Structure formats: structure tokens, C-alpha cells
UniProtKB/TrEMBL annotation:
Molecular function as annotated in GO: transferase activity
Organism superkingdom: Bacteria
Species per Swiss-Prot/TrEMBL record: uncultured Thiotrichaceae bacterium
PANTHER family noted in UniProt: GLYCOSYLTRANSFERASE
Signal in keyword set: no
Higher taxonomy: Bacteria, Pseudomonadati, Pseudomonadota, Gammaproteobacteria, Thiotrichales
Name of the protein described by the UniProt record: Glycosyltransferase, putative
UniProt KW keywords: Transferase
Gene3D superfamilies linked: Glycogen Phosphorylase B (3.40.50.2000)
Pfam families, per the entry: Glyco_trans_1_4
Length: 340
């Protein structure tokens, strides 16, 4: 099977963490014997004219592909302009559809969301990182497949060793904030993170707590951050299936999180390893952080992760199964249309 990936998010030398989960999913699928090719529409560095340039590139490369897998709704729309429905298509949405185009002004974002819903028909494979939304449930090719974590790369280390490797202060307890693109990315709410820590440190019992920010770090050092942290605090306004939470679980680091995306579902069987708080509730986040930092109970979150099929091997297997279903559906549809 030959799969062409079209994405507007992929790591670069200057931004090694930028949408690295896309690269890692491509790699895990390639390990299953799939031939892969990647078109990266790098509008971040070179502007939105890259989308226009990509139309011909996609059209040319699609001739050698059995299937095209688009990461992000905008990549899907550009691919439709390139090849229509002449090639079997799969699209992975990063967020709920109303937040998929959040980088655009609100009217444009809303229009793109409506158009996407209209153009995703029953013969298109759809991957949602969170639960499948009501509007897509009539499509048997719509699946909930969160990105998986490479547990050969993310696994528990001694906290003291990780702290030493990052040249941190061993007398401190660290609360981890993660935003691969930009610390001040609106969705991630670094402002809320700092406010929660300010409230926490007002209590003398937590005066030794410090923030630890993971932004644009090389991939080989990322597990050290999760293993150095006493807890990962996620303050996002919305998410699909936050990879930082899964990476935290793989390192057995507890999580305090706003109740976004599929965070609750990820902890089935290990609920004691995470506390969930309503979006925007600073006081509740502070109290949950106090509870987690003050608790001596530790859950084997790595086992919870594996039991819930959130590792990269399980995720790649599910994606490849969807590829087979999409190809079969496409062949059947074409046969039906060509029958006199």
C-alpha cells in the first residue's frame, strides 16, 4: 500500500517540536510496511501562498498513491481542490470541527467548518482524536483514533536523574507546562497556568514549587521534562486528544487538567492519576494541584496507557485498518458506478 500524507504541520530544523506527532504517526505507519510520501505545506514559515503551490504538487504525487491521508481540515480542503475524489481519502481532524480552523478570523473559521462538513461524505475516512461527533456518526468510516505514544521513547526514569540531566534544582518540585508551538498560544492558556501557580505558591507548603516550560525542545530531551515534573498541568480551553497528557502517562507523571477533549477517557482504569476541572476554573485547578502534589499515591499510568491502546503501535494498527476499509469502500463504489 502506498499512502501520500498531506499536512500543514510537520517538524523543521528550527521548530523540532512543531506537530511532531504527525511525523511520528507517519513513522509508525511506515513500520507496518506501508510505503509513505509526505507533502508538507509549510505556510508557517513561507506564508499561505504555499497552499496554492501545493495544489499541483498533490495532483502530481497522487498518481503514485493508493490513498491520501490529510492531517488537518485545511489540508483536506486543498487536497479536494487538487484531486477531487479520484483517490481514496482519509482526513485526521486535530480538534472538534468548530475549533479546527481556530487560526483564522472567526467568520472564516466558521465558513471553513461548514464547508468541511458538507464535503466530507460517506466514502471519506475520518479520524477524530476525541469522540466521533454527532454530525459524522452516519459515516461508518468515521473513527475515534487518538495519536499514540512511542513507549520505547517515553517511559519512567528516576526523577532525580532527569532533573540532573536538565540542570534543574533538585530541591524544587516542578509543574510542567507544554506547548510545542508557542508558550503564549491562545488555546493553551499560559496566562491561566501562571495564575494557578501564583495562587499555589501563596501557600507556604508549596513555596518550593516552580514552573517548567516545554516549548520547541528537541525530541530526545522531551522525556526528561516529563520525568522531571512532579505533575503536568494542562490549562487548555479546548483540545482533541492532547499528546502531552499521553506522554505524561507514559512517564508515570500525574496530570491535573481542564476537562477537554478525551482526557477523561484516556484515564479509564487509572482515574487516581489525574484530576479534571472545568475550563477556566482557576481555584479548582489550584486545589487539584495541591491535592496531587500533596499525595504520596502513585498510579502505574504507563500500564493504563497501554491498556487503553494509546501507544503508537496500537494507534498505527487502527489507522491501517481504516485504510483497508476506505480502499474496500472506494473499490465497491467505483464498481457500482461503472456497472451498466
Amino acid at each position: 500500500m502506498r499512502v501520500l500524507f498531506v499536512t500543514n504541520g510537520y517538524p523543521t530544523e528550527d521548530h523540532p517540536e512543531y506537530c511532531v506527532f504527525n511525523k511520528e504517526q507517519v513513522s509508525s505507519i511506515e513500520k507496518r510496511g506501508v510505503e509513505v510520501d509526505v507533502i508538507f505545506i509549510n505556510a508557517r514559515d513561507y506564508g499561505r501562498s504555499e497552499y496554492v503551490k501545493a495544489i499541483k504538487i498533490i495532483k502530481d504525487k497522487s498518481k503514485n498513491a493508493d490513498l491520501i491521508h490529510c492531517f488537518h481540515g485545511l489540508s483536506y480542503l486543498i487536497t479536494l481542490l487538487s484531486v477531487g475524489k479520484k483517490v481514496p481519502l482519509v482526513v485526521s481532524f486535530l480538534n472538534a470541527i468548530e475549533n479546527e480552523y481556530i487560526e483564522f478570523p472567526k467568520p472564516v473559521s466558521q465558513i471553513c467548518s461548514v464547508i468541511t462538513k458538507m464535503l466530507v461524505k460517506k466514502n471519506i475516512g475520518m479520524i477524530f482524536k476525541d469522540r466521533v461527533p454527532i454530525w459524522a456518526k452516519t459515516n461508518s468510516l468515521a473513527k475515534n483514533i487518538p495519536n499514540g505514544v512511542n513507549i520505547e521513547q517515553f517511559f519512567p526514569l528516576k526523577r532525580s536523574e532527569a532533573i540532573q540531566a536538565l540542570n534543574l534544582d533538585s530541591s524544587k518540585r516542578y509543574v510542567l507546562f507544554v506547548s510545542s508551538k508557542d508558550k503564549f498560544r491562545r488555546q493553551k492558556r499560559y496566562d491561566m497556568f501562571t495564575l494557578v501557580l501564583k495562587n499555589l505558591k501563596a501557600d507556604q507548603a508549596f513555596s518550593d514549587v516552580e514552573e517548567l516550560c516545554l516549548v520547541n525542545e528537541t525530541r530526545d530531551r522531551v522525556p526528561l521534562y516529563f520525568n522531571s515534573a512532579s505533575v503536568h498541568l494542562l490549562t487548555s480551553d479546548f483540545e482533541g486528544s492532547p499528546n502531552s497528557v499521553k506522554e505524561s502517562m507514559a512517564c508515570n507523571t500525574p496530570v491535573v487538567s481542564t476537562n477537554v477533549g478525551n482526557v477523561k477517557e484516556m484515564f479509564q482504569g487509572g482515574e487516581a492519576g489525574c484530576e479534571f476541572v472545568n475550563v477556566g476554573d482557576v481555584d479548582a485547578l489550584t486545589e487539584s494541584l495541591k491535592n496531587t502534589l500533596g499525595s504520596s499515591e502513585r498510579i502505574d499510568l504507563l500500564s493504563v496507557l497501554k491498556n487503553n491502546d494509546l501507544d503508537s503501535v496500537s494507534s498505527a494498527q487502527a489507522v491501517c485498518q481504516l485504510y483497508s476499509e476506505v480502499l474496500s469502500n472506494f473499490a465497491t463504489s467505483n464498481k457500482f458506478l461503472s456497472t451498466p
